[in-house]
Fold these 3 entries.
Entry 1:
Amino acid sequence: MNETILLTKHMRDNPEDSHLIESYEKNNGYTTAKNTLLNSSPENILEEIKSSNIRGRGGAGFPTGVKWGFLAEDEDRYLVINADESEPGTFKDRILLERDPHQLIEGMIITCFSANIKEAFIYIRGEYAKPARRVQQAVEQAYEKGYLGKNIFGSEVDLDIVVHLGAGAYICGEETALLNSLEGRRGEPRLKPPYFPAVKGLYMKPTLVNNVETISSVPWIIENGGEEYNKLGVEGSTGTRIFSLSGHVNNPGNYEIEMGTSFGEFVDTLGGGIRNNKKVKAYIPGGASAPWFRGDQLDIKMTIDDVANNNSMLGSGAVVMMDEDTNLVSAAKSIVSFFAHESCGQCTPCREGTTWLEMILDRIASGRGRTSDINLLLDVCDNISPGLTWPPKMTTICPLGPSAVSPITSLMNDFRDEVESLIPTKVLL
Amino acid sequence: MSDKVNLNVNGIDIQSDSNKLLIEACEDSGIHIPRFCWHKRLDPVGMCRMCLVEIETPRGKMLVPSCTTEITDEMVVDTESDVVKKAQEGVLEFLLINHPLDCPICDKAGECPLQDQTMAYGPGESRFVEEKRHFEKPINISEIILLDRERCILCARCTRFSDEISGDPLIEFIQRGNKTEVNTFPNEPFKSYFSGNTVQICPVGALTSTSYRFKARPWDLKSTRSTCNGCSMGCSIELNSSQNKMLRILGVDNDSVNQGWLCDKGRYNFEYLNSEKRLKTPQKSINNNFVDVEIQDVYSELSEIIQDRKTKVNFLLGSNLANEDYVAFREFSKSISDTEQSFYINDDLLYQGHFGQDNELAKIDDLNSSDAIVVWAEDLKEKMPVLYLRVRQAVKKGVKLIVFGHTNKTLSDIADVFYGKETVSKNFEIIKDVSKLNEIKNYVIGKNVTAIIGKSTPQQSDDSVTELFEFLRSNSNTKILNAYTKGNIYGAFQTLENIKGTRDFVENISGENTDLLFIVGADPVGRSFYSNQIKSIIENLDTVVSLDIFNHETAELSNFVIPVSSTLGEKEGSFTNIEFRTSRIDKLVPSPGQTVSDWEFITSLMNFAGLSNDSNSLEDLNNKAFVNIETSSKPVFDNLDKPSNLDGIINVYEPAINTSENNSTEALFYTGEKLYGDSVTERHSESISLLGSKKFIEVSQDIVDKFNLTSGQCSMVQGDIETTVSYIINDNLPNDLIYIPINRRDLNKFDFSKEIKVLPSRVKEALNVN
């Protein structure tokens, strides 16, 4: 299989200076935005987005056109770009921010034109220092050119963009926690209902929160038409996606492909296979929150629906391969430790439960497990995510708690023997 | 009125107001859902997850927190399903894994929601074998509040109270996840007038107060419901005692008054009851020395004086007496004289007020339903802290707030319009024509307005607020709360006729017209704008009898000092608050030594002296208290004690206040009172004396520049009198003015009609060295 290059074209063609406005404009950058503002209408743009059938690239896969349609009427509305890319295994937004920030800005101009928004924010994760510098520079360049500010391209359209750097909290990728953080509050998810961002978002005003990759796709969709985009990929998962491939593969990295091929083909061709010709024991199809697939499930298609039908999620497009030598208990413990560390602390089950899970896994992984620990693990998981179903039910405000449960249920469903083998059956005195 | 909706909870059909949350709707119908973070008076946060219930949705049954779920018609709810029970058990186990096993030494044990709900819903045994989370055991977050973070279950009640209700968010979450803790900001103690409320609403023993810590177990406590007499708000309180010692005061949720909240002064100013320095025996001054005497001797000496029909008797009454005490003095005066007797109340700010028609008098609840609130009075946060909370609550609901006056520092922060020195002159008169103040016009004309109006400082003329009130009355639908702030002053209004204040006392009283003066529960020499004048008057009277619980500056000048019981917890009676709401005062602990109630003393004296007396019991006095009220809901004990009337009975009443007109004078200083001072009870309450230990004045920036003040300290000098104080810059004060809180003895000793010099304290130190 081959890549289908839409979003990463400019950065590939101009590896030296793709982040600069001169380079971007040389390759027809900002012409789509200019044409849109001068010749199109907000309704047309929304129609193109809807007909493209693009679904959000942040993880939940919500249809972008539908989301835009939900935005409540108000004098003040905001667009917030969620660039708090923190899901372990995911590094796709990083290249879009670092190497093609103008594509994102152009997408934001078109989006704001369509949604009649005059103020937008880019919330970048705290650790992304270089991407943040590049984006800030790009925004300043766009202001200098008159592509941001008042009367953009000589039209009646105004738009201001503020770049905001987070302070290093995974939870701020959850959109309502992101809004809290942007407002200067503790980064804690808000109660839903009533605080759906499209109705009560930033400063309690209707707010569109979209992922970097989603909005970076907008210029291509508008330039080439929603119908053209819809032809790429498969029904329900149209267009291309940038997958971040990592783990025990020969060629880890970001790959832009049309959705619809199988994980196995993706790994074998673009990924160059598993290191040392080992077999895959398990893999994560969509970021650390996603339940794992077994090595014998590599023929699952890389679409949002196929993965969901197999009780996991394509999520943020982070594919992590674990070969036959992997200690899966340690792998699960790493992931659970991450979530325990990143819990915001609001909800009791997540605050207390994730840390407890971490402690139990640590005990088992280091050979100090008890036979009762397996049932204990599952029961603690059940108290965070009742029924251990997929999609998860939860006793918490946001899905961070249940995310810590995912690797454990995977482990217990498919690799229980491996866990049990680590628990000593005899106690030496 | 909101619509009714029908729900089905656990198979039972219930009906509720549509604006209720699920947890409230269930509670109203007798279905209890366990909870930790949810509190009726706070915004829901849905953090503890204890109140999870299942509701039917188009996508099947869903677990939702009932404290954040708004009810809808036809909602089907299960609060007892297996899934719900499992989730609740899980939440409790999570809360307990890091909760220390402190119960045997924890003050909360026995009245602890975590304990109770663990028993009712908890897992019974622990599966947690790791080490629990540790924090430094209790840390002082203020002089009187301790925080044990190990016990904290992070329910956000204290943080929400401080943010939403009291508006001083000094306590907050820090860190995140498993390391989350509640704490104060570095170098900023939890210095709130309302900090004690957080101790009361803490669902575990994380927040404790020094005054109650390790003093008693809840199951040993005796308790009764009473009314706080600290200011004229009349908050409903619960008194707790053990082994006949008062140990704690809690706020009772009286929907129309304090809604469960108390100020820290109301909550902690009871420790004096247990003081060793209480007066326990009657005393007589012989050659400037007090000697213990028998009460019979006092009666007989006083009887001789009052049996002389020419004896002229006067009364200076404190504002902390029960209604029945006032009635006793009224009956006493009637029995010795046919002429109408004036009663002087120990209040520097007493003036005629604005009563008029009954329907123009506001209830506290009117604040919430007004379009705007206009305040021109003493600083409410200092003088009636819980009324300040009610004003804040109304403002939060969108009611506009317009505030006048330089000394209203705390209200200026939340006011929509603040009229300070640009609009109000130095001597407290509105400089401009009120009808030309555009900001206020926008908010009040044609609107429902509640006006809180009273004098701000003794220097203010009595009629200075009249123009404002008349403007409001003629341009809007205005109701007024007359802001007399002192204790049971409204009880005095209801029970006494011909009331005057300390200013009239100074003008009227002399040896010419007074042979015998009763000073009851008052220390005007220690704490009054007129203290110097009052002192010289008292010194020149023949016979002065003080009734009080401690010896103090005024009592020391008396011929007789009679120890009496405190209105707080040591006697029964009734109390009337700012909206003429009368409620019960109850007795919980015995008073020490030979103390008597004020009414007992005076009726005994009447009997001893053979005066005609037909009221020998508290009930008799209570029945005579409300002579001018003829409604069937007269607030007598029989009515007040009915369960439906525990929150009090309102009887609007126009009092007979007869003060002489006070004209304004050019003010050299403003005097007022801060919440904490060093009154005789505060001095003997450890918590309050800690809170009020700092002595300070407020000055304009001008003064700072003019006198070159830099160190935060200055010296005040007037003749031989001299004191060092801290100063705070108050930008609202007009140029060249100083605001002096005179509820402190060392700031009260100046003559406020004469100049006081302010010097940088460093210069003074330098002078001392030379």
Entry 2:
Amino acid sequence: MTAPSASILGVPHAESDIAVEVRSICKYYSEVEALRMIDLDFPRGKLTTLLGPSGCGKTTLLKIIAGLVEPTSGEVRVNGKAVTGPGPERAFVFQDFALMPWATVMRNVAFGLELKGMGKAERQSIARHYISEVGLTGFEEKYPHELSGGMRQRVGLARAFAVDAEVLLLDEPFSAVDEQNRRKFQEDLLQLVEKERKTFIFVTHSIEEAVYVSDRIVLLSRRPSRVAQIIEPKIDRTASPDAIRRDQGYLDTVEEIWQGLKHYVD
Amino acid sequence: MTLYGYRVPMMASLLVWCLVWELVGQSGLMFLVPPLSSVLVAGVAMVQTGTWQSAAWVTLHSFVIGMALAIVVGISLGVLMGRFRAVDELFSIWVNIFVSAPLSALVPVLMILFGIGETTVIVTVFLFAVWIIVLDTRAGIQHVPSSLIEMGRCYGASPFALYGKIVLLAALPEILAGIRLGLVRGVKGVVIGQLLVAIIGYGELFELYSRSFDMENFWALTIILFAAAMLMSAAIEYIEKKVDYYAGVR
Amino acid sequence: MMASSQANTQVDGPVRAVHSPAGRGLGLGRLFTSHPVAARVVSLGLFFLVWEIAGRVPISYAFPTFLDTFYAFGAMLLDGSLFVAYGSTLQPLIIGIVISAVVGVGLGIVMGLSRKAEWLVAPLFIVLQSAPMAALIPLITFVYGIGLLAKTLAVIMLALPVIVLNGYKAVRNANPSLVAMCRSFQGTRMQQITKIIIPDASPVIFAGLRLGLAAGFIGVILAELLITPTGIGDLITYHRSVANYAEMYAAVVSIILVSTLTLAALEAFEIRVLRPEKKRG
């Protein structure tokens, strides 16, 4: 179960194919050890999921990659450059959406561009494009409280797309979205992944969600977290969403991960 | 704040302000502000006098009676408003008006209705404190999850047990917060009432010392009053923290 | 009291309704929207009826009926004495509140942003907020006499602490998730403060201004009753001394009415402008 950390399954990737490298990251919160010697590579243009039991530090790892949290030791490199803080090549999608309640959908989506000092007309036309991309056309002038949970997270996603970052970091983006909307959202996300050709790093605690959307799944062990296993689901992504959910490879992978994680659950 | 790696507790900065007070007082720039040290000396002497002790006793007496009335009436009315819509609609407009109205304007009316004496002060304390207790109790009662009440019914709790063992306890965090805010307001009420009545308790002493420019005693009086108000509010806050643990998981 | 928990709704639990339940307690602003008009009219009418009956009994020689008080109120409106009194009362109130607002909000924001300022100043205002500042009002007379300055100072003394503390708490408790969001999009510290922290804090800051105004009303009336016989306070004292109880009650009711309506208007403004998410709450 505890495979060597730095291993990358499958064909070795060429250096340029790696968008994000995580090198011997350790993180302590005062006395508590959250992450122990994490080494990972995130291939370009793929969706990699960090999956693990609750409280295992997967969100911490994602925030370290985002530059929002300082690691105790170790280094993160994006396109070969070391991370010292948030940067324009990475965009973050928050678990609780982090939408400004006083701003319209339009201003929320354009907020990243507003901070860069882009002119109003220009940033609004970019925002409008991504608002339609996530299927919220017609809601531009609404406020977050007028939207459902699923729609709010679409705003969060559009905001991340709008700054045109190469790497998108999604922190349990669907956990506050109800089940039916989540399924629809997952399907839409797969299409966006296909279309936008970005590197996605996705944190979730749902095994089914991880297997359904991911190219690679990194299983983290319980605190102190280490890389327990890396799985590449063999699923035919060209099939219809319903077919994927009934696919034998999908079901087997879910079962395999569950068998691996089961002993972490009390 | 940390200083040379040590955590300096926040309230420690009050010592800095005490020092500033002492320096301003020593400089003699403002005759209204005598040095803190001489105020403290005066305070120690003052608390030993019979005048202060009887004034403090009268003040405490009015305060305790007024607060007790405010707590009993406030919680009862709050519970009624939280459970019965008709009561809520009848009283909510008045509670909301009085909770932020300038009640100091009412004291002259109380003085002619209840006489220039302790009753007026008690009623002032009551009027200052009661409304916020009503509002917080009402909010607490309305926040009791209906599943908790249904649970009580399912297991056959009598209406008496339902309130005693479930509803009031579940609303306790809000009720205590209301009582703490009520106490702070009640202290302001007792001071304002006595200042306006001007012939009893602390109000009389304030009047006496400020008219005779006895600033040491005036400030000593003020410090004791402020300290008492702070201690009381801190005590309730301590109890509040003890029940806070379940405020989140109800 | 706390800023709306709208933005940081629960994370792992089941998803609740999109609209957060109406805030706790009844605000003055909601007085005019959440309850059917009928209930309010009945409630007001019943109160006036009880007052009228109690005045007719009478429960005290100094207890006029509601109608007498109402006529006295009309007479005072017509002869202009109310307007003169309010001119004298509202002027120090407004000046005092504006000064307290500027100083208090500024100080509160600085304290919310800087740990050092918080350490030095916050405890002072925590003490002043929970202590009966009214005790110090007699002192003002010695320094500033009995004019406009003394009344303004009384207003500031009572209003400033709550404004400072609300501003400080609002800024300190700015939604950390929104701050992280701003950082993740490389917002500068200045952008973080002006685009996230202050807008996020503004409803609570504004609520502090409302509480400050309520305290200011208490302060100005107290100053007029205690030290400077002018304005509404003087009207109350004068009519009491000549046993014009109906006029006296009318003056008391009028000041409660004025403060209630002002506070309600402020709260309505707050909900309309600062909290779009609560407009339909």
Entry 3:
Amino acid sequence: MDMSTPMGHGPKMKLVMVGNGMAGVRTLEELLKLAPDLYDITVFGAEPHPNYNRILLSPVLAGEQTVDDIILNPTDWYADNAIHLHMGRKVVKIDRSARFVEAEDGTRAEYDRLLLATGSNPFMLPVPGADLEGVISFRDIADVDAMIRASSQYRHAVVIGGGLLGLEAANGLMKRGMDVTVVHIGPWLMERQLDEPAARLLQKSLEEKGMKFLLQKQTAELVKGDSGRVSAIRFKDGDSAPADLVVMAVGIRPNTELAESAGLHCNRGIVVNDTMQTFDPRIYSIGECAAHRGVAYGLVAPLFEQAKVCANHLAHYGIGRYQGSVTSTKLKVTGIDLFSAGDFIGGEGTESILYSDPIGGVYKKLVIKDNKLVGGVMYGDTVDGAWYFSLLRDGKNVSELRDHLMFGQDHCGNLGHQGINKAATMTDDMEVCGCNGVCKGDIVKAIREKGLFTLEDVRKHTKASSSCGSCTGLVEQILAVTAGGDYSAAPKTKSVCGCTDHTHEAVREAIRENKLLTIPQVMTFMEWRTPNGCASCRPALNYYLISTWPGEAEDDPQSRFINERAHANIQRDGSYSVIPRMWGGQTTPAELRRIADVAEKYAIPSVKVTGGQRIDLLGVKKEDLPKVWADLDMPSGHAYGKALRTVKTCVGSEWCRFGTQDSTQMGIDLEKMFFKMWAPHKVKLAVSGCPRNCAEVAIKDVGIIGVDSGWEIYVAGNGGIKTEVAQFLVKVKTADEVIEYSGAFLQLYREEARYLDRTVHYVERVGLDYVKKKILDDADNRRALYERLLFALSVERDPWVERAREGKLKHEFETVAA
Amino acid sequence: MNNWTDILDVNDIPKLGARVVRHGNLDIAVFRTADDEIFALEDRCPHKGGPLSQGIVHGRKVACPMHNWNIELDSGCAVAPDQGCAREFPIKVEGSRVWLDLSAVERVAA
């Protein structure tokens, strides 16, 4: 078979897509981005509409949006992209040997590649009367139109199926003024997403809105009325209820009819591999009709993942595999807040944490197995849904979060959204993302205008939730309400960045095991996809190289973020700030005089005392930096680096009447010992001379508290975005021990943490017990770690001295006149 | 009329780096890729004016040091979905010397 590709000149290849829904059109959009001119594209859609957002049929039914609002790609879009669009034409035949498809009306299209995106069909109960007028499903715009028409003429509606779709239909019909009864075969509503207590709360609040429920009822027959239209529903137990409209929402089935008729292998969907190809390699399939590893997905995020992978292969890029998704659910009924994911029932070997406030209408249940969150259901307050979902997806060990897990991310130390937990109550001008100044209205607008569906999309377009991430829960809620997006995502493998699929750990191991010494070596060895990486991976690789092979791997300034290349902090106006080191926060009149002189001589506009007991000179011109450093004649403070920053101290026993130890000297000794230490992220230390803890050691990476009988060492504390109190590591007697234990901990972090992880993230990941095992239980290992740190530090020089006195990398600070 | 001016040597610019060339009040970032391609853009990110010369160069892009927008060196335009373009200037390499068309710079500065 000829599978070659006409690239460049000559006739274009022909791509035909059957099915004009969200997953399919998303694939075309991705494809057009990658290879706009590769294909001549033809699209067949059975419905007489362009691509619309099927998830938002519920709000259309409820009268909250119109059909026009939910159109994603107007017909202009197809025309602009030279796509031949056949609306209202159902394809009934694929001829795989002659390679064409044929629609009901005889329209034919030839293909080189065929994409089947036929979606799914509603399942209709095979009961007598199922074909009566007034019996419909809830699947497309025609169904919604039929429901809206019925609501203006008739009174009694029955929805069969108390799942997600059924409840949304019932809610919409109720809003249209109908008297709605939901018939459900199960003992409680939404049993695939909710446990019984949450379902009861949901039922109660829907009943308060006027919805009626008949649970554990099996439909026997739909009864024909005098007009020929359905008039009642009869159950197997003999009961009956009036029904002028019956909506069947008992499930969907992948639409495989066409694929099966063409002899393609189907098994609960059109079977596809990880590149979304069917058993005929010219034919791809994605969306609700496709069965990937035995699963046919029905939520947007996984389908869009599939679309991305499929487009990638259609574009001949040949990278990317779809590996399945973990999914979660939200119900789109205005005023009802509900979230569920994973195994929320639990069973053998699982434990549950419950929170129930029936009066307040809040219920939460988290299911834990082997110290990992495996599922959860939340009703009434779902702001932490995204957080729980990420814990679940990443398989994070939650043993240390257990105590406050139930109370959400706020209680685990995150700040940033002022305790607001309901996006629905926010007005458009209220700020959601405090880091990037993004208001709710901005996000809603971007979602509507740009057709965004996933958190990643929103982050890219609006920058909301893209910095510290503490507003993620709110953004997810806004997304769910506005576009019907969900939390689903492909399993996270934590690759270093988009340039590679390798994890941080794999990269570090390769560097260590194969003695890779330069960034190009790593990229060649690990088959990077880009010629020289990106602004995310290059700094990480540079750190991994110099920390693994100190003295042998050469530091690459072009792979350093500007602050670490210029050894000063870039400011918003392009000027720089300079913070000289003051050991342990101590200074002298002579140093202060030099600082004052420098500030005047170079007209430095701002002089500020920092939070780390030093002095910051702000607004220095880049070309002045080497001269400023020379005149200051003080060591680099590394305030610009992922490196040892400050060692904050109190005055200690030398002056303080409460002091039990000389904390100032201890701080100076620690700072001199670890000076010039590069790390995965910034590192801050503090030493207090007594338990009153004036140096605030509890929020430092390493915090030391002097007590009468020695020193207590705390690790992995954090201020900033994620406030986390440091954990007690060990108590030691001597100053030498303080330095050895602290050094060993820092070296462990340097060797094992992912780039840009603070100690708090690292210890959260590996657990404090692991750290204790490496440092406390194994004295040889502790000394070896400490020795390795000392060696790494021995080859580092003060970068300010090198640049101010020895002219290193002069070009960095010189402007060329022209 | 063109005003091609010899401004610096290719080797004055670090590979995967940039130099700032100043003409009057205007800063121009002159970039060098791994393959020694040379590009000149106004040293202002279309987002919030960050100095592009200070960013990390990768492939034929530079990541702005302020908020990490990626700018295409050949067009000066931001990589989607970000929008906006930094002004580009005509530049050429003869032997190892880099020449900038100052007339284009002056039209902007004026």
